[in-house]
Design a protein that fits this description.
By secondary structure, the protein is an alpha+beta fold. The protein has six helices and 14 strands. It binds 5,6-dihydrouridine-5'-monophosphate and zinc ion. 5,6-dihydrouridine-5'-monophosphate binds next to loops.
């Protein structure tokens, strides 16, 4: 089979889902929606921004004069941790539901309204990583699932450009990480080794999907990527959760994050939109031996700063489909020129 020419399906090892890859289709013309790509010049402090230091939020709370990162309870939480609403969880064989308790927080990455994570220094990004770890550690004592994520850019439905992410914690494991848990557990039980460690070893040998690499971390376009420039960030050592990372690994992580995010921005010369987030072993009282902690990056842009991919039609009804191959996407990301200081320790 010629993977560079012929339509084929690839299997996601983490979820078991398949994706159709149609490489011959990448050159088709586009007459649909163009995304707005103007890079707006923003002030360092915006008096109207609810995330800037010292400003008021909805509901009357005021942000402190924070210096690096700042975490607060989301004023419009999707999950509540009220006790005592157990009543009314009616059982019906055809109407399935269960109560969840949880909480939602907002993480400001910097007091600077005009920056993005990609534009911050390694030391500043390390503070963000450490905040993710501290929050995961604290919330992991109370909830079995802690989801750290960032939604960036208007194309991803993020209305506020102030650099920030979110954390949702809940007392049940949601659908996607639950599938990842099952598949990693199944592989561990059958092979006695860790799925994502074995997968990374394979990828490091073939190299064609590799984007960047330092001593501790690797970024690649996964074999089963759905989004055009989707990547996965993996540790090159055993770590089940964010909370397993030592200080040294926080710094090497911030090094590779900065490298990846600059490649993304450089690809179409735009503040690259994406949703990213961390998956690690659930906090279930075990060491999570079968897990490797990892981050997924899902950017919507396809062929230029103004053409995005839509997951519609066949993808809603059948399964995901992509045109540009993961191998070509990785080559494009590898080829982005970074100024010397940001490429330190990375290929
Ligand atoms: P996104 O732009 O990534 O959706 O995140 C902004 C979050 O900030 C959003 O979840 C919250 C919204 O609920 N928010 C507050 O908690 N307080 C406010 O005053 C406005 C927005
Ligand atoms: Zn702001």
């Amino acid at each position: 089979m010629n993977y560079e020419q012929q339509p084929h399906r690839r299997r996601n090892l983490l979820t078991g889902e398949w994706v159709i890859c149609s490489p011959h289709r990448a050159a088709r013309p586009w007459q649909g929606q163009l995304e707005d790509t103007a890079r707006s010049k923003r002030p360092q402090h915006d008096p109207a921004c609810y995330l800037c230091a010292g400003n008021a939020r909805s509901g009357g709370k005021r942000n402190p004069d924070y210096q690096d990162t700042f975490v607060f309870e989301n004023d419009f939480r999707a999950l509540l941790d009220d006790e005592g609403h157990d009543e009314g969880d009616e059982k019906h064989p055809l109407l399935c539901s269960k109560l969840i308790r949880g909480t939602c927080r907002v993480v400001c990455f910097s007091p600077r309204h005009d920056l993005t994570l990609a534009q911050m220094s390694e030391a500043e990004i390390s503070k963000v990583v450490q905040t993710w770890i501290d929050q995961t550690s604290e919330l992991g004592q109370k909830y079995c699932w802690v989801q750290v994520f960032e939604n960036k850019g208007a194309a991803m439905g993020c209305s506020n450009p102030h650099p920030h992410g979110q954390i949702w914690a809940m007392d049940d494991v949601p659908t996607v990480p639950n599938l990842e848990d099952e598949n990693q557990f199944d592989y561990y039980r059958r092979n006695g080794s860790v799925l994502l460690s074995d997968y990374l070893e394979t990828e490091l040998k073939v190299e064609e999907r590799l984007v960047c690499l330092n001593d501790d971390w690797a970024v690649l376009v996964p074999y089963w990527a759905v989004w055009p420039f989707e990547t996965i960030l993996l540790p090159r050592f055993k770590a089940s959760r964010l909370t397993d990372l030592s200080f040294a690994r926080v710094d090497s992580l911030s090094n590779i994050l900065r490298n990846l995010l600059r490649r993304y921005d450089g690809l179409f010369n735009v503040d690259f939109p994406y949703s990213m987030g961390w998956h690690g072993a659930p906090f279930d009282g075990t060491a999570g031996e079968h897990w490797q902690v990892h981050a997924h990056f899902y950017p919507p842009l396809l062929r230029s700063a103004s053409v995005r991919k839509f997951m519609v039609g066949f993808e809603m009804l059948g399964e995901s489909q992509r045109d540009i191959t993961p191998e070509l996407a990785a080559e494009r990301l590898r080829g982005v020129e970074l100024e010397a200081a940001s490429g330190k320790d990375c290929i």
